[in-house]
Specification:
With 99 residues, the chain is of the alpha+beta class. The protein contains one helix and four strands, in the order E-E-E-E-H. It folds into two domains: 37 residues; 55 residues. Bound molecules: zinc ion. The site of zinc ion has 8 residues, from loops.
């Protein structure tokens, strides 16, 4: 049976169930049980945890790398579009003015 120290009084708490909390028998405080101490079969399987970690890693990479890259690409695209459009507009303006 796994035991751990009560964070309030330091008493040794035995934990055998699957509930997320256990009540300390020494000081009566409700203590949140670490996920590692819960019964194996009731926690997520390792590959499921890995998949979730991968998902968060992908989200993290998209946020850290993808968003700035997209912003940079958008900025580059806008500057290229401006570089093309401004001379065309200037030509058009000269054409209108010379008529
Ligand atoms: Zn306690």
């Amino acid at each position: 049976m796994p035991t751990f120290a009560c964070p309030s009084c330091g008493g040794s708490l035995a934990y055998s169930g699957a509930a997320p909390t256990v009540v300390c028998q020494y000081c009566g405080s409700t203590v949140a049980v670490l996920a590692e101490l819960r019964r194996p079969g009731l926690t997520l399987p390792a590959h499921e945890t890995n998949r979730q970690a991968m998902r968060w890693l992908v989200i993290f990479l998209v946020l850290v790398v993808g968003v700035p890259t997209c912003l940079g690409l958008a900025g580059a695209f806008l500057s290229v579009a401006a570089a093309v459009l401004v001379p065309l507009l200037a030509l058009f303006a000269t054409f209108l003015a010379s008529r």
